[in-house]
Specification:
Helix content: 55-70%
Radius of gyration: 42 Å
Shape: elongated
Oligomer: single chain
Distance between the termini: 34 Å
Number of helices: 16
Number of domains: 3
Strand order of the largest sheet: 2-3-1-4
Number of strands: 4
Strand content: 5-15%
Largest sheet: 4 strands, antiparallel
Order of helices and strands: HHHEHHHHHHEEHHHHHEHH
Length: 421
């Protein structure tokens, strides 16, 4: 190295200019300092090129050594929350169709209807079934089911918040074929898991009305049996038309009250006390109870709740009238629930399968990692930058060695760091 070049290194390390004019502007000093840096880098260009080349070679090796990952995606469409058929059938009930709003599922909506399905896809039951069916404990080298499940969760992304309204199941794996199998396996396991669950609105309504219809059927059978026994004990088989009209009116009112109470119970499961529909339903219930009270009846006293005025029918027929009224009431309730049950069954059949597969996961033909071009470019650039800093540091270190005082301090530091000292 020449004396002039060494002087450039000394100036660079000291952060001073090689110019002799002490009164030069600051801009001139900065330009000279940049020139010093360029001279240092030019003198060590072979070192920089070697480090950069070695980095590029290392990047190429790494791009082929790093484990590859593939990504497969399955897309499913969840059922739409609507029930036009049930609303049309409920409209045929007229004044007795108090449960129409319950049947139509008004207000029973979520911010994102896909959230329950995403929750089921990520449930422990589905994930454990995936681990067992695909032997992921051995594949992931895990001894515990919980550890394999966590590893599967890290490699799986289930997104149901897209604007297209669909659920996308994405699985990453080192094997392209297994990635597709795992994505499709989620769909199969979800179907098995949801087979016995009422997921859709129509399924929920069908299950609700099925239970209520069974109770109404049992009550109607009991009322008919009591009617039969009354006929045998009293010998009466018919009453006058005026009494029968009052009995029918009271039975219809009681049926409307019972229907409205069922509607309110259903609405209270998803609406608060200030909901407009719920408040209106409660007001209608109070109005129906008031009408029944004018006829001398009550919904809380069973078969004793409606007594015709004295002198309207013979005393011997009172028990018969009570039993007839109970049968009429049970028949009306049974008819309403049967219509709603059939409407829910039709809606459920119309909706078809719980989920529909839009796109099955196919074997990916392109890896997502590593991106070999990016690895090579990034590693080479990092090596080039590190080589530049190393060259500057070497120039600074050379300056310290050339100065007696700094050289003495470096010797003391080397001796202090020595293990033998």
């Amino acid at each position: 190295m020449t004396t002039e070049t060494t002087q450039f290194d000394l100036n660079l390390a000291a952060g001073t200019s090689t110019g002799t004019d002490n009164g030069a502007p600051e801009a001139k000093e900065e330009a000279i300092s940049l020139l010093d840096i360029l001279i240092v880098l030019a003198e060590r260009k072979r070192f920089i090129l070697k480090v950069t080349g070695a980095s590029a070679l290392l990047a190429v090796v790494l791009s082929f050594v790093l484990p590859v990952r593939y990504e497969a995606t399955a897309t499913i469409l969840t059922p739409q929350q609507n029930s036009p058929m049930s609303a049309a059938l409920a409209a045929q009930l007229g004044n007795l169709g108090g449960m129409a709003s319950l049947a139509s599922g008004a207000g029973l909506s979520l911010k994102n209807p896909n959230d329950p399905y995403v929750g089921m896809l990520t449930s422990r039951t589905v994930e454990d079934a995936m681990v067992k069916n695909f032997d992921l404990m051995g594949e992931y080298h895990k001894n515990r089911l919980s550890d394999a499940r966590k590893k599967l969760e890290k490699r799986t992304t289930i997104d149901g918040a897209n604007k297209d309204g669909m659920i996308h199941i994405t699985v990453e794996d080192h094997d392209a074929q297994r990635a597709a199998q795992l994505a499709n396996g989620y769909v199969d396991q979800f179907r098995d898991f949801s087979h016995h669950l009422a997921l859709t609105e129509a399924s929920q309504r069908r299950l609700f009305f099925e239970q209520e219809l069974e109770l109404a059927k049992n009550k109607l059978a009991d009322a008919e049996e009591a009617m039969k026994q009354t006929e045998q004990s009293t010998g009466l088989i018919e009453v006058n038309s005026q009494a029968k009209a009052l009995i029918d009116s009271a039975s219809v009112l009681r049926a409307q009250i019972a229907t409205k109470e069922v509607q309110i119970r259903g609405m209270e499961t998803y609406a608060n006390g200030e909901n407009a529909q719920l408040v209106m339903a409660r007001q209608e219930l109070e109005s129906l109870r008031a009408q029944l009270a004018k006829l001398g009846g009550s919904t809380d006293s069973g078969s004793e709740g409606f007594i015709l005025p004295k002198g309207m029918v013979p005393e011997a027929a009172t028990e018969y009238i009570r039993r007839m009224r109970e049968v009429k009431y049970c028949e009306t309730i049974f008819d309403i629930l049967a219509r709603q049950f059939e409407a829910a069954k039709l809606d459920e059949a119309k909706q078809g399968a719980v989920i529909q597969v839009v796109d099955t996961a196919t074997v990916p033909d392109k890896r997502i990692f590593p991106k070999r071009s990016l690895v090579v470019i990034g590693t080479t650039l990092c090596g080039f930058i590190l080589a530049i800093f190393a060259a500057i540091f070497m120039a600074y270190f050379q300056r310290l060695k050339n100065e007696p005082e700094s050289s003495r301090k470096l010797g003391a530091l080397r001796q202090a760091l020595s293990i033998r000292s």
